[in-house]
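User: Sorry, what's this?
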Amino acid sequence: MTARIFAKLIFAVVSVLVVALIAVDLLASRVAESAYVETLRRELASKGRALAVVWDGDVRGVAGVARSAGARLTLIAPDGTVIADSDVTPERMENHRNRPEVMAALGGREGSSIRRSPTVGEEFLYVAVPVSSGALRLAVPLSEIRLQVNAIRKHILIATVLAFLPAIVVAAVFARAVSSKLGSIIVYAGELAKGNFRARLAGGGRGELGILSRQLNETGEKLQKTVEELERERAELEKLERIRKDFIINVSHELRTPLASIQGYTETLLEGALHEPQHNLRFLSIIRQNAERLGRIVADLMTLSRLELKTEKLHTAYCDLNALLAEDVDSIRPAAARKSITVGLEPAPQRTEVFCDPEAVHQVLGNLLDNAVKYTSEGGTIMVGAAARSPSAPDVEVTVRDTGVGIPREELPRLFERFYRVDKARSRELGGTGLGLSIVKHLVRAQGGEVRVESEPGKGSAFSFTLPTQHREDLT
C-alpha cells in the first residue's frame, strides 16, 4: 500500500518536473535565439559601420574583407544593382533595391532582416548600412546561429536538470513521509470498516495529515464509546428481558398456588362438603387465607410497578426519626410477643429529623420488622437502631438487627430481587409474597437513600437503610 502511494507521488512529481523542463527548454530556446540574433545583428551593424568608414571602394578586396568580418559581404549601388559579393558573382544576382535591409540602408539608416537567399538557397541574417557608394550589407547563415543557440540550449538543459535533482530528492523524502502517513490512514480506515474501533493511529504532526489522523482517532474513540454504550444497552435489554420472563414465570407460579387451592376447596364444597360441619368452616378458612394472599401479591405488585415507573407520589417532609421508629416498634411488639421475641430500640440523638415520606418509611420498617419476626426463632431478639453514618454525611442510617436463621453469603446479591426467596418452601409457609424486600429497596431509593444487608447463617441478619436529614435541593 505505502509503496504504491510512494510510486504514484514520485510519478506525479517527476511528471511535473518533466513538463517544467520542456517549458524551460521551449522558452529558453526562444529567448536564447532572440538574444543571440539581436546581439549578432548589433555586432554586424557595428562591423558594417566600421567598414563604411575605412572602405576605399576597391571591390577587388571584398573576399578578404568578408573573411576578416566573418560574414558574407555585399556592395549594392544606389539603384539596387549588386556591385560586388564575397560569395557569388554579381552578374548572377538580382536587383536588391526591394530588399528590406537594402531599402533602409539606401534611405540613410541601418536595416536588417531574416530570410532565405534566392541566390544561395539558405536562410541568412542580413544587416545593411549606408555607404557613399550605396549600401554595404553583411550576412550570416542562420545555420551557424542555430548551432550556437543549440549549444546554449544544451547548457541550459544540463543546468536545469542539475537544479531539479535536489528537488527530486526532496520530493522523494516528502513522498515517503506522505505515503507512509496515507498508508497508515488507509489501514486504519480499513480497521474501522472491520469494526475494530479500539485501533488508533500513531503519531500526528501539525500538517493536514496530522489533523486528519487526530480527527480519525477522535472518530474511532466516539465510535468505540457508541458501540460500548450500545453493547451495554443491549446487555441491559437482555437483562430486562430475562427479568420480564422471570417475572411472568414467578407471577404465574405465585398466583397459581393460591388459585389452585381456592379452586380445589371451592369445588369440594360445591360437591357436598358445604353441608359437612366438620369440614366446611375449615375449607372456607383456607379459601379466605389464599384469597388474602392473592390480595397481598396483587397489592405488592401494584406498589412495585408504581415505584419502578416512578408514578408513586411520595409526600416528603421533615419528620422526627425517633417517633417513626417508636411507632413501628410498638406495632410489631404483639407479633413478636407471640414468639417470645424481645424487640428493642436504640434511638437516634434527640431532635434528629429526616426528610422523608413517613408512610413510605413505615412500610419499609414494617416489611423489615415483619421479616425479622418471621425468621427469628422463639426467645430471639430484634433490635432497631439509628445513627449518623459520619459527622459530615447528611444521612442517618437505620438498622434492623435480629438473631434469626441468617442468610448464606452467596444469596445476598439477589436478596432484593422480585420473588427471590432464600428458602422458598418456608417463605410460602410463612405467607410471604417474595416482593417485600424489592419494595423496600425501591422505596428507600425513591427517598434518596440506599439499602444494604449483612448476614451470616445461624447468627442473624442486619438490614440497614439510609434517610437524608435535609432536602436534597437544600444541600446545593
